[in-house]
Amino acid sequence: xxxxxxxxxxxxxxxxxxxxxxxxxxxxxxxxxxxxxxxxxxxxxxxxxxxxxxxxxxxxxxxxxxxxxxxxxxxxxxxxxxxxxxxxxxxxxxxxxxxxxxxxxxxxxxxxxxxx
Length: 116
Fold this sequence. Notes:
By secondary structure, the protein is mainly α. Helices cover about 60% and strands about 0% of the residues.
């Protein structure tokens, strides 16, 4: 029994070991490293690390995902580390603003639509 505990096959504290593929911490670290964050983002990055660490070490994984998962996701969204936040941050193609339309119409000597 002690040999199995020493080999990491049995938990010392009575809990079954978590599958490394289920851990959130390594994925968060990889994501934060890929973002290349500056000093101004250090607090949010540290908060994301702490959420991930707490999720990985809590006794009930379902509780961690249910209650801390949304907080971690919100933190990653603020850091633009989610697909939805990156899509929202990209400026889309924009047409001329209303002011630019009015200026162009005036320069052309035309009255813009809706102006009498």
